[in-house]
Amino acid sequence: MAEPRRKMKDLRKQPGFDFMAWFCIVFLYAPIVVLIIFSFNDNRSVVRWTEFSLRWYYAAFDNEGIRNATIVSLKVAAVSTLFATTFATMAALATTRTPPFRGQMLSYAIINQPLMIPEIVTAVATLSFFSIIKQLTGVTGIGYLMLAHTVFCIPFAYMPIRARLEDMNLTLEQAAADLYATPIQVFRKVTMPLLAPGIVAGGMLAFVVSLDDVIITLMVAGPGETTLPVYILGQIRRGITPEINAVSTLLLLLSIVLVSAFFTLGNKKK
Amino acid sequence: MAQDTADMSGKSAKNMILAEGVTKTFGEGDSKVHALDDVSISIRENEFFTLLGPSGCGKTTLLRLIAGFELPTKGNILLDGQEIGHLPPYKRPVNTVFQNYALFPHMTVARNIGFGLEMQGRSKSEIKQAIEKMLALVQMEHLANRQTDQLSGGQQQRVALARALAPHPKVLLLDEPLSALDLKLRKEMQIELKRLQSETGITFVFVTHDQEEALTMSDRIAVMKAGHILQVGRPKQIYNQPARRFVADFIGDINIFEVDLDEVSGTTGRVTLPGGATLPADLPEADVPAGAVSVAIRPENMRLADARDSAAKLKGTVTNVVYFGAGSNVHVALKGGSEVIVRTTGEVLDDGHEVGLILPDRVQVLVD
Questions:
Q1: Residues B206 and B280 reside in one and the same domain
Q2: Which of A104, A125, A255, B285 is deepest in the core (most CB within 10 A)?
Q3: pLDDT at A269 over 50
Q4: Would you tell me which residues 188-207 of chain B have a C-beta closer than 8 angstroms to some C-beta of chain A?
């Protein structure tokens, strides 16, 4: 290895670095820490600490509204993750396993566009689009919500899958074909097993994104289709309670687990 | 044209691979590139055949056409008498050792080796037997259950070889498989490859840009340049009787003299060196027109002599002596300006020494 021409300046030695770093960390996480602390408060207040207790967690589990909303959230997230990941995998294969074609960059842009459009625009558009379909067909149900979630989850699932495919050595697939594997066998025995961590990572990201969504859900969800974030939002209008803190803490915990798993899988080099 | 003179190695003369008028182009319009231009070649059964040339000469493209990763734009490829030019890779009884090995990272060494047989639908016991045999062949028995990323470069190389040999293909294709190894390991693997080839009796087609590697291992070599095959022959032929100036230049050190050719008769003639001395010459093809031609003489085929020696047909002055262990390359400036290299294992001369050069009995005429 050649010597670097100039020794890299260590940013950590710059004046004010420690202060800025701590300022950012505190700014980002202090509110969340407060939320977590007060979820264990044995008191109705969310500003005055009295004593440690799990009563708000019990209360949350007892609350039928929260229970139902959780079930709806998990159902919608599971179904939309399944479909979004499938479509994202197909899209990633189609955009990386073909010779370069005209409009390749355009196709990336189209797939990732939902990330750029303001969510409120998508939400309003989806609402009016679904209204037309409902009027024409008379079909209602939770399927619309799942469909809407699937759509905005696709770009999130697509990114890690495509990254994984682009990392993958193309000669591995050629080697398999050279060793008498038919195209289907190449896919099953080589492409899929090597792609799996990317698909799982994409799926988890999609799951978290679906679980978190408020704006589109608020517009599209019908009666009895209240998801957990939407329920929490509704409760807060009537004043914040430690019960909400408890639910939020649990939701946070789930997100942390999934996102950590996402990074672990994403970094696993193979 | 390059002549493929009779083979004296005693190997079967049956053709294993026959390429007829194969052309491969990439791109279209202005950016169209002829990777191979009307190439015809025959590779015999049980032969260690090397495609040698600089990068971009089309050697890898030819290999990929035989493997089936590319399809020919024009022409036919026959394998053991059957046309395969348009079959997909998985339908060809041909296996490849890739330059970067391309071992499956999610499988153990044993499963990598068994992959081809597994895809062919062989029985479990047959696959197990074959894996054991292959592991023994490449001396990797103790590493059967390792993941491939825990292996050294040389070990990965052996696994790649075992994997490609396990289904017992009719032809094994090797795409510069030794280029990633260090010199010592490369020398070992050259001998190892030669051993594997004779033990398995499989036809090897080896691609390299390393002329020494080609000379060491091959039964026959095809020298390629810019999508054409310039000369096919045994290593000794390629080295001692290069037909083309490019072949002479590409392989080893060589001195090229501009001379006058006359008395042409069939594939022999007589050349007149600048200085007046004449020598009998071999021609690469019949009836080369008389006149100005080039001849090639290897540094080790000339001897230094006393300047007054009557057998010395050329005279000059030593300008530089490069010592390389087993001998020295003596640079001699000839009367008339040009410089030649003479290899000697004898006494080391001082710069400025007047010397005579004793030339070989015959010289080889080159065509461009």
A1: no
A2: A255
A3: no
A4: none
Q: What is the pLDDT of residue B6?
A: 45
Residue numbers of the domain that contains B352: 253-366
- Say if B88 is an interface residue toward chain A (CB within 8 Å): yes
pLDDT recorded at residue A140 = 85
Structure-block tokens of residue B256: 């090229």
The reply to whether residue A177 touches residue B89, judged by beta carbons under 8 angstroms, is: yes
Point out the residue among A172, A181, A182 whose CB comes nearest to the CB of B102.
Answer: A172
Based on the fold, state whether residues B265 and B216 are members of the same structural domain. no
ipTM over 0.85: no
**Order of all β-strands in the sheet with B15-26:** B33-44, B15-26, B74-79, B82-83
**pLDDT per residue over B202-255, tens digit each?**
999 999 999 989 999 999 999 999 999 999 999 999 998 888 889 988 888 888
Contact B116 A182 (CB under 8 A): no
**pLDDT over 90 at B31, yes or no:** no
**A171 to chain B: closest CA residue:** B102
Question: Which B residues, 43 through 72, put their C-beta within 8 Å of a C-beta on chain A?
Answer: 67-69
Mark which residues 255-274 of B lie under 8 Å from A by CB: none
Residue A5 binned pLDDT confidence (cut-offs 50, 70, 90): low
In a domain, B124, yes or no: no
Q: Are residues B300 and B354 in the same domain?
A: yes
| Residue among A174, A179, A194 whose CB faces B116 most closely | A179
Residue B361 backbone phi and psi in degrees, to 5: -65, -35
**Chain position carrying tokens 């033990």:** B199
List the CATH number of the domain containing A51.
1.10.3720.10
DSSP string, B292-315: EEEEEE-GGG-EEEETT-TT--EE
As a whole number of angstroms, the distance between CA B130 and CA B70 comes to: 30
